Amino acid sequence: MSVIKAHGLRKEYGTLIAVNDVEFAIEPGQVVGLIGPNGAGKTTLLRMLATLLVPTRGTAEILGYDLLKDYMEIRKRIGFLPDFFNLYNDLTLEECLEFFAQSYNVPNNVIEEKINAVLKYVDLEDKRTSLIRNLSRGMVQRMGMATLLVREPEVFLLDEPASGLDPKARVELREILKRLSDEGKAIFISSHILTELSGFCSHIAIMNKGQIVEYGEVEAIRQRVAGRKKITIEVLDDCCQAVDTVRAIPEIEVMAVQEATIEVELNGGPEDMAAMNTRLVQNGIKVVSLYEEKDGYRGFIYGDFRKVGASVYFVQPLRGCNSFVNFTTGFGLWPSPAAIIVMTPTGSGKEKLREHL
């Protein structure tokens, strides 16, 4: 049985369609990252699933319960953490967690044990008697997770939990989420920054203008949107023979050669990379390293646009400059190890993108 299954879920505000007939399913143990620019409909979708907004039409099933008919049963079993939330500033962490545990009918005889376990889980044991008002932003965010964990929900719905955190706090929150995913918890987590979710998501959903334009396993999407792999080969001696060898292999294109380093594009997976390495060694070439390039961005140097859905383009990253960091002129941007995901503004699409490079 699916943990979450959406059936034509739609939310309208007058003439604005915030969520447009969305359909997807999340299975037990899956960690699904919901990616999209501000205004894509991520928060509206999560709030509907959390039973805080009534859909205009359509419905969903969560843990077998109907979103419209069984919303009270759903609320008992999910943990929803909004982008901005309030805790009682005059309570200590221990008092706050006790309040949430009692609110969700956690048996009194296990509350203290759960509070101890949860504070250890989010690394706030030493703040047990501190007031909420004295916590840093990162600690408050971890405390927000603790208010969910103390009642052990079966599904987590998290709306941009890393928003506004400094790098250290993001890492700390990420570690908590990674542990939850390792424990097999079902998590639906949103962000407009793909790198915040990389490393622990099993699936990715990309949302734009109220629609989910891509959904699937991380590796499947990576292969689908990134297309050709960028491979860097370093050899010990002169690379002329190595260049001739790889050029003779089908589905491989040599893109750049510099001293003892060759950059190629490859259509295929790990097995094809291994086959290429075997061919080089068999031809007497001393290969120092052979790896897929995943870090850094050289931009649209080869014009490798791959359109998926309305106004959504994917570009395979290459080693080089990170000029995209300040690339904010009307475009949505999510750099990741898999691809650069660019949401173009209205207009001429590719041409407008090129103007900013």
**SSE series:** EEEHEEHEHHHEHEEEHEHEEHEEEEEH
- CATH topology type of the largest domain: Rossmann fold
Beta-strand segment tally: 18
CATH architecture group name of the largest domain? 3-Layer(aba) Sandwich
Quick synopsis:
The protein has 357 residues and is an alpha+beta fold. The protein has helices at residues 42-49, 71-77, 93-103, 108-121, 137-149, 167-182, 218-226, 240-247, 270-282, 350-355, and strands at 4-13, 16-26, 31-35, 57-62, 65-66, 78-81, 155-159, 186-191, 203-208, 211-217, 229-235, 252-258, 261-266, 287-292, 306-307, 312-315, 332-335, 340-343. It is 29% helix and 29% strand.
Descriptive notes:
This protein is α+β, with helices and mostly antiparallel strands. The protein has three domains: 4-223, 3-Layer(aba) Sandwich (Rossmann fold), CATH 3.40.50.300; 227-292, Alpha-Beta Plaits (2-Layer Sandwich), CATH 3.30.70.100; 306-355, no CATH class. It has ten helices and 18 strands. The strands form four sheets. The protein has a six-stranded mixed beta sheet, with helices on both faces.
List keywords for this structure.
single chain; 357 residues; alpha+beta; Rossmann fold; Alpha-Beta Plaits; 3 domains; 6-stranded mixed beta sheet; 4-stranded antiparallel beta sheet; 18 strands
Secondary structure topology:
Elements: E1 4-13, E2 16-26, E3 31-35, H1 42-49, E4 57-62, E5 65-66, H2 71-77, E6 78-81, H3 93-103, H4 108-121, H5 137-149, E7 155-159, H6 167-182, E8 186-191, E9 203-208, E10 211-217, H7 218-226, E11 229-235, H8 240-247, E12 252-258, E13 261-266, H9 270-282, E14 287-292, E15 306-307, E16 312-315, E17 332-335, E18 340-343, H10 350-355
Parallel strand pairs: 3-8, 3-9, 6-7, 7-8
Antiparallel strand pairs: 1-2, 1-4, 4-5, 9-10, 11-13, 11-14, 12-13, 15-16, 16-18, 17-18
